[in-house]
Amino acid sequence: METDEATNLQLLPPAPPQTQEQQQPSILPQYQNLIMAAIEALNDPNGSNKSAISKQIEDTYPDLPASHSKLLSDHLSKMKQIGQLVMVKNNYMKPDPNAPPKRGRGRPPKPKEPLPPGAELPPARPRGRPPKPRDPFAPAPPAKPKSSSSGTGRPRGRPPKRAKTAASAPDSGAVTRGRGRPPKVKPAVEPVGC
Hints:
By secondary structure, this protein is mostly helical.
């Protein structure tokens, strides 16, 4: 057993030595910071488009990963969704700090009027349809026993499968019919001209 493990270890190639790039942690700042710095550096009043932001980042940091364009797209869309960036006509810009917060979808709820002090809340209305008004002097209706069925004499659910009995089996002497529609019987045709 030990010899097998020793031979397997000898067959494996040695691990490649780590390069300086793999040993050093990346000194690249986070993409959100890169994007914000690029937008500030471009300083365009109408905002900066994705290609201008990408070019600015590439000029500033030449050693970007191969998936730079994908990472940039993902981070731009994420920052747009959480409100760190605003997109106007395909241009990204920082949101105006004085702008009101973005309103949610749908109709806003009605403002609730504050109750005067000492007043109690009325009881909450129960769910469902309210009962019909009754005459207080009329006699109480007779109680009906609840039945589990809904008007028919049959029980709920699928009926149990009946076991096959010997009486229901066809006689072996009789001709059994096959499944489906029987073929159409064609009348015998006499030859013409005889």
